[in-house]
Write a structure and sequence with these properties.
The chain has 306 residues and is of the alpha/beta class. Helices cover 40% and strands 13% of the residues. The protein has helices at residues 75-89, 101-112, 131-149, 153-168, 171-177, 196-211, 214-226, 251-260, 278-281, 283-291, and strands spanning 3-6, 13-17, 54-58, 94-99, 117-123, 238-243, 266-270, 303-304. Strands 1-3-2-4-5-6-7-8 form an 8-stranded mixed sheet, covered by helices on one side. The relative contact order is 0.14.
């Protein structure tokens, strides 16, 4: 597992984990001045600041094998690899902030290594997957696999990503963002009509193909649907964050985790038009929650941020 660690030696350590397309680079460094995948939440002056905090980011396992055979990789596999990284760094206990797939991995880490978790922040993730979300992802994998089978791997992966983007955002955002009418009218037998939202999805698919490959996508997409942890007892300092328009991890599923956890974690639901991607888009709300303390509250009474 490739990783990036930065921040003062001996400072409180936080492992920061994002979605399947997030990587180890969290904040600008001398060798890589790019902002990282979570700007506003991680970086100078942000809640997770490498000038103050010891931060660890990773590249997920998946899509690589020495013998050319792809094998299932689980959120628990990722957690064990992260534990090995922490061992190499000499870090015994950490806070873990995980969003989307990273939240699943964080839950798996807390289940396997409870004594190593000082604080847990989970965004857009729960102890199990929603069957409707699995249905959507299964179609994404079918599109990617069909692309490989027909010699159009890039096209298949782009379509898979476009379909994913529909589930990452909300109908409300699309209504406010895109016009309904076409950008151009097609002609039978020559060219199809093109719509603003279609143009957006095509661009997102093309961008994804430039930085991902089909094998890695299939491995990590399947890993999401293999995810399952026992709600059990989460650390008292646990914050669960959901967004009201998230169709992949709806607030009621996160509340199920909170209710069934013996640790009575705090669950906050944030209104947003951005759906599952709100953890990336609602920077101010996420930053405020991360800066605040996370006292345990009575399970079954989720808070709502207005």
């Amino acid at each position: 597992m490739a990783y990036e660690a930065q921040g003062p030696a001996g400072a409180p350590a936080t492992v920061v984990l994002g979605g399947i397309s997030a990587g180890r680079h969290l904040a600008p460094t001398a060798s890589d001045p790019s902002p990282g995948w979570w700007p506003g939440v991680v970086g100078g002056g942000a809640p997770l600041d490498p000038a103050r905090d010891s931060l660890v980011g990773v590249d997920y396992l998946g899509g690589d094998s020495e013998d050319g055979l792809l094998r299932p990789v689980t959120s628990h596999d990722q957690a064990r690899a992260i534990a090995a990284v922490l061992d190499e760094l000499g870090i015994a206990a950490v806070s873990v902030a995980g969003a989307s797939y990273g939240g699943m991995v964080a839950l798996a880490f807390a289940e396997l290594f409870p004594a190593r978790v000082a604080r847990l922040v989970i965004l857009c993730a729960a102890h199990r997957t929603h069957p409707m979300a699995t249905a959507i992802r299964s179609l994404q994998r079918s599109a990617a696999e069909l692309g490989v089978a027909t010699g159009q791997a890039a096209r298949g992966l782009a379509l898979a990503r476009a379909l994913a983007m529909i589930s990452y955002r909300s109908a409300r955002e699309f209504e406010e963002r895109f016009e309904s009418g076409p950008l151009s009218i097609g002609q039978p037998g020559r060219s199809p009509s093109c719509f603003p939202v279609e143009q957006y999805l095509t661009a997102r698919g093309a961008d994804f193909v430039q930085r991902f490959d089909t094998e890695r996508f299939l491995a990590l997409s399947e890993s999401i649907d293999l995810h399952a942890t026992a709600p059990g007892s989460l650390p008292p300092q646990t914050l669960l964050v959901s967004f009201d328009t998230d169709v992949l991890v709806p607030p009621w599923l996160v509340d199920e985790l909170a209710t069934r956890s013996g640790g009575c974690p705090r669950h906050v639901t944030v209104p947003s038009i951005y759906g599952h991607d709100a953890f990336l888009k609602e920077v101010d709300a996420v930053a405020t929650l991360l800066r605040a303390r996370t006292p345990a509250v009575e399970a079954g009474t989720p808070e709502v941020v207005r």
